[in-house]
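Why does residue order matter? Because the sequence determines the fold. Keep that principle in mind as you read this record.
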Amino acid sequence: MTTATAHTTVVRPVNRSLYDALQLAFLFAAVKLALHIGTNLWEAHIDYGYFRDEFYYLMCGRHLAWGYVDHGPIVALQARLAETLFGHSLAGIRMLSAVAGASRVLLTGLLAWSLGGRRSAQALAMTGVLLAPQYLGLDSFLSMNSCESTFWMSCLLALILLLKSYSQRGCWIAFGVSAGIGLLNKPSMTFFLIALLIGLLLTPERRILFTRWSLIGIALLILIASPNLIWQIYNHWPTLEFLHNGRVGNKNIALAPLPFLAKQVFNLNPISILLWGSGLIWLLINRTAKVWRFLGYTYLIFLIAMMALHAKDYYLVSIYPILFAAGGIAWEQQFSRRTAVQKNHAFAFPIYQVLLILTGLLILPMAIPVIEPYRWVAYAKAIHLYDQSGNTENESSGILPQFYADRFGWQEEVDKISGIVTRLSPEDRAQAGILVDNYGEAGALNFLGHDLPPVMSGHNNYWLWGPHDVGGQVLIVISGDPPQHFERICQQVQDTGRMNHPLSMPYEHKHIYLVRNCAQAESPKGNWLRYKHYF
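Structure:
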């Protein structure tokens, strides 16, 4: 006689609200992703090229390391993956940034759900984030900034779920991984983590810090971020030197507190302050949200710190999805008697949501270059925003703001340099080098050029990559200096022309010199240290 052994299967109930939240969040994220793929394809069609920094990140991707002078290693890995997968495709190079932007939208919806918001709150929060001008701009090109809020908001989501009695082990591990990779993406995440720590310490929720799993999460954070710290020590703290030089050199525009706040409002779409501003108030004073007060404190502490440090106005932008999420809940609770809210409709606030969409689309050309340059100028003037489209650095721009102007002139540079190289004799070409002022010029030559001599620059990480054993026999130099500067140190100086694309930044309108027989002490190989420029 055979005895059968009964096996009992335990089926856990499905969290329907989470399923619905994910479904809605993925829908909004898909719209965001499609928007950026479409606009990047369109940009190439209307002759906008690669952004200056993209060339640099792509070259960093070809020199993978645990650290770089002016950014973390994640963007270099991002660039390497993008180039490997998509080659020179403009839309392809920017694909991972577009995905990061979509993840920000998705996380905003999940944050609203985790704080107790229903579909109406989730959809309103994601609508606000979807077309916020600053996010549109950051997600439209290859950059570490597009990924930043993904790591920040993942940390906050982990802590929120922890406080809602989800697994301590899982939440703290998720926090440690997100924070550790976030620090590798951009070391400035340190300021956010400090603000978060202070925010927690100021509230009863500090209790979550004093557990075994919190120590494990923090240890994991440190372990993941430590290779970059070791790289910094080994290379004599280049990032600190870079930051110091920028500060003493007055590189960035320093805004007073009120203009800094005004920039926050403008960068996120002025009418969206009714949403994220409501979220901040809800986090700080709503009695039903006491447990989340540390999130409001974190924002205020971080805001004050960025003002005190005279940071760029967009350094704060990665923290706003939590305020949008809280704002969605504030609106949902305020209008809880509305039929659409009671029926849990995604578009329960149609007038405001349509206004967010329409104003976002109206401002979209100020964030992403979807209009031909000269028509863009007319458009910006027509909506009275031409004066608002300035720079974050103390460099004058020309017809276009820096964010757009830095997409022009690169192919012209490569064509002119390539023409000079083809006219060199085989002997001269064998010992020639190309010396340029900045990483944009160098990166464009490396990425767009073919069969060129070694390209050198003392700017940031290019200095660490060295002079490639190039002496002073034959140099092609891009410089804003007059010929007399080179006549003092080189026996032959020939001014071969200028970089002067009418839409590029004015400081890129430089001379291109062919110089020969320069003093050994002034050559790259003879005295590379003199070319060092961390700025």
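Residues 16-45 form the longest helix (30 residues).
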